[in-house]
Amino acid sequence: MPTTLTIPKLQMSTTEGTLTEWLVEDGAPVTAGQAIYALETDKSVQEIEAPESGRLIQKAAAGETYPVGTEIGEIVA
Amino acid sequence: MKTDVMAKDIGMDHATLREIYRQMSRIREVDKGIQAGLSSGKFMFTYWPMTGQEAIPASIAPLVTKDDYMVTIYRGIHDQVAKGVPLKGLFAEALGRVGGVNKGKGGSPHISDPASGSMVTTAIVGAGAPIANGLALASKMRGTRAVTIVNFGDGATSIGAIHEAMNLAGAWKLPVIFLCQNNQIGEYTPIPDYTAGENFHCRADALGFKGVKLDGNDPVAFHNGMKSIIEDVRSGKGPVFVEAVTLRLGPHAGVGWSHLLKGDALAAAKEAWPVPATRKLLLEKGICTEEELAAIDTAASAEVQEAIEWALASEVTGEDEMLLDVYGDPGVVPRRGQRDKRAAEAPHTGETRQMAMFEAVQDALDLALQLDDGVFCLGEDIGDDPGGVFKCFKGMQSKWGERIRPTPIAEQAIIGAATGAALLGMRPVAEIMFADFVGVCMDQITNHAAKQRYMSGATTHVPMTVRMIAGGGIGGFGAQHSQSTEAMLLHNPGLKIVYPSTPTEAKGLLLSCIFDEDPCIQFESMMLTYSMKEEVPVGDYRIPLGVAKVKREGTDVTLITYGWQVMQCLKAAEELAKEGISAEVLDLRTLLPLDYDRILTSVEKTGRALVVHAATEFCGLGSEIASTINEALFHKLKAPASRFGAAYAPIAYSRIIETAQIPHAGTIAARVRELFK
Fold first, then answer.
1. pLDDT of residue B396
2. Which end of chain A has less Cβ packing within 10 Å, N or C?
3. B499 vs A17, B82, B526, B542, B561, CA distance in Å?
4. What separation in angstroms does the CA of B519 have from each of B339, B376, B429, B503?
């Protein structure tokens, strides 16, 4: 079953986040704990780690701002 | 023996260190599981990571059992895991699911799991310490040898609750350990920005008990240090303050790493991180093989994955739970359309004795102490002499010994101790002297005692009673000893509140409060404490909560009131009778649960209503009751229901102003006449 990646609610005040950069190419393998994208929320940038190992499928463009909960990609086996 | 030689090698027997690592690995996997869920958007809740602090609870776990108590804070998931809170219930709770240890009603910052000894998790910094004292007090009074450990961060040492709790624990030699997990930062503000103090353990010295500083990142040193401390506390040597030095690697809230740790600092912190460091030690010393450690980690990861899947399969806690667990009986919750008929007390036919209200209160306390070993009293100056500032305890300490407990002047410590003891099934009765002082302990009353049943999904409840004296009406007490503060408390769900107007009712309501399963507040009017005397039933006499009483029958208007204003309304009714206005006086006696049925029944008969109280009129209970009457009986009313309370000003020192600013017979009668215009 693929693992869905959505814009996380990292802080109580977070309502949206900017996917500043994908750190792994679309379709490339990732391991759990590896930084996969950079997220800017509330003026601080954080690298988000892969929750599972698998292959990253990007579903949203970098440089855009999305509301919390928006699906931006998935990790497939 | 081979084991002993190897044990000297690391200063601890190998099986224990292996077990400590197993707990650290479980904590680490829980932390990773939560952060992965939050990062991927699969979870949505606020998380305060404890990354870096795993060694502290993991090293304590082998030294305590489920019969020892723990209190912690929102950054306390590591404490919960090591204490033995089941992971399925823990994840389901954090996710707000019905399968949570608290039915999803507390959430990650409010875990209570009495089965494992995790009693209270507070999201109010420092507020757990006064409650931990109560748990320890109950253990001490019952002679159980249980140890209570209260966890808090270094940031909490700045708040008054910690100081009050430490002072009381020292004075009473309570079996409690104040465990300060000094992670070097209070939320976002690091040491020394928030304190000029160089360490925290020395604060215990100032209060007359032992303070110790230990390396919380070294499981061997920390476990060994805690072992002798726990033994001492268990054997009755009094409290200990432990400063466990560690480093928070994560942010205040959210996922990832601390904003203060960058580059080399982060790399060094990760190097010193006790989870990988302990793993490395076990490997280097030949205590575990890589395969054995991998098996521990794999088992922990599998336990966490299974718990997460289980939790996600559990239903999100639904609306049907909204009004449940506010009180033991959902019928107590005030709400539109509620009109429960509650039976009144039977008329008393037995023996009576003349008593003033303070004597009737003492009679109730004395009887409760006889009826139940779990009853005890605490408050300022209640020992002999003087036997309480209001004389309610005269001779009681001589008779009941340790069950009458004079306290330091520290209201947070008093209410916390009562709350904690009540959590273990005792029935404490606290005195807060003047009702104005409730502000000092508002957090303990409203955020903790009142909310604990709800937040814990009814796995715990707080059968305590607090008495407070409203000083107004006599004149000369001034703005800080005269206020009637019931509206502040009524606005916070979870409390039951009574406000008697006679000695008999003070006794009957107080006994019902003491034996009620929810936290109760009894207001006593200074106006009535000594001046009013009457024949009071002797023996176990109780008045059920939530039952108002007609004190004078009438047909034209209902005066709804309580406390010392009952007397004023009766006088006003007498005056109005001369003018041909027949006023009914309804004494609420209990403000919550509110007796909607007797209120509406009376006003249905009279068609007019005025609610009268000594508390400030603006946003007072009178407005609430008048609104309810206007909504429920709109078509039957001859005039809009109204309210009459004190003017919007602090209670004045001047007797002339005080008399003018609070309703009295003359002004009440004048307001009633307006209803007939």
1. 97
2. N
3. 53, 45, 12, 14, 10
4. 23, 15, 10, 22
Tell me the two tokens of residue B101. 């240890």
Query: What are the C-alpha distances in Å from B615 to residues B7, B565, B609, B623?
Result: 68, 10, 18, 11
Does B291 map to a domain?
Answer: yes
> What ipTM goes with this model?
0.78
Question: What is the C-alpha separation between B52 and B244, in angstroms, rounded?
Answer: 12
- Grouping H, G, I as helix, E, B as strand and the rest as coil, residue B500 is coil
**Residue type for B207, please?**
L
- pLDDT grade for B222, boundaries at 50, 70 and 90: very high
Distance CA B6, CA B17 (A): 12
Residues B485 and B515 in one domain: yes
The answer on B571 and B530 residing in a single domain is no
Domain enclosing residue B610, as ranges: 549-675
CB contact under 8 A, B44 and A69: yes
Q: Whose structure tokens read 């007072």?
A: B620
CATH number of residue B124's parent domain: 3.40.50.970
- Selected residue with higher pLDDT from B253 and B626: B626
Q: How far is B420 from chain A (nearest CA, A)?
A: 30
- If you average pLDDT over every residue of chain B, what do you get? 96
Q: In sequence order, which residues have a C-beta less than 8 Å from that of residue B484 and are 6 or more positions away?
A: B435, B470, B472, B523, B563, B613, B614, B615, B646
Sign of the dihedral through C-alpha B610, B616, B619, B625 = negative
Structure tokens at B232: 């001492």
Q: Where are the alpha helices (DSSP H) in B40-125?
A: 55-60, 77-83, 87-94
The structure's pTM equals: 0.95
Distance from CA of B405 to the nearest CA of A (A): 43
Does pLDDT of B1 surpass 50?
A: no
Here the tokens at position B253 are 């809230």
Q: Which residues of B lie closer than 8 Å to A, measured between beta carbons?
A: 32, 35-42, 44, 46, 253-256, 259
The total domain count for chain A is 1
User: What pLDDT, in 10s, does the model give residues B154-191?
Assistant: 999 999 999 999 999 999 999 999 999 999 999 989 99
pLDDT at B7: 63
Last residue of one domain, picked from the residues B507, B537, B567 = B537
Residue at B326 is within a domain: no
The stretch B255-282 carries a mean pLDDT of 92
Spatial separation of the C-alpha atoms in residues B241 and B157, rounded to whole Å: 11
Min Cα distance B263 → chain A (Å) is 14
Q: What pLDDT, on the 0 to 100 scale, is given for residue B6?
A: 52
| One-character DSSP codes across B611-663 | EEEEEESTTSHHHHHHHHHHHHSGGG-SS--EEEEE-SSPPPSSHHHHHHHS-
Task: Supply the residues of B annotated as catalytic.
Answer: 481
Q: Please check whether residues B525 and B560 belong to one and the same domain.
A: no
Same domain, B215 and B269: yes
The Cα B147–Cα B137 span in angstroms is 10
Query: Does B415 share its domain with B292?
Result: no
Is pLDDT above 50 for B236? yes
d(CA B232, CA A68): 51
Please count the structural domains in chain B. Answer: 3
Both B383 and B290 in one domain: the answer is no
Instruction: Name the burial class of residue B648, with classes exposed (0-12), middle (13-18) and buried (19+) by CB atoms within 10 angstroms of its CB.
Output: exposed
The answer on B588 and B489 residing in a single domain is no
The whole domain housing A61 covers 3-76
CB pairs under 8 A between A and B: 54
Residue B424 lies in a domain: yes
Which residue, among A48, A53, A71, would best test binding to B if mutated, counting the most B CBs under 10 Å from its CB? A48
